[in-house]
Amino acid sequence: MWNYLQRRFVAGFFVTVPLALSVAALLWIFGLADALTSPVVEQIFGRRVPGLGIAVTGAGILVVGFFAANVLGRRLLQRADHYLLLVPLFRSIYAPVKQLVWAFNPQNESGFKRVVLVEEPNRGMVLGFLTRELTVPDASGTPEAWVAVYVPTNHLYLGDVLLYRQERVRFPEITVEEGVRIFLTGGMALPASIMTSAGAPETLSAGPEGRLGGGTEVTRQGGF
Question: Between the chain's N and C termini, which has fewer beta carbons within 10 Å?
Answer without folding.
Answer: N
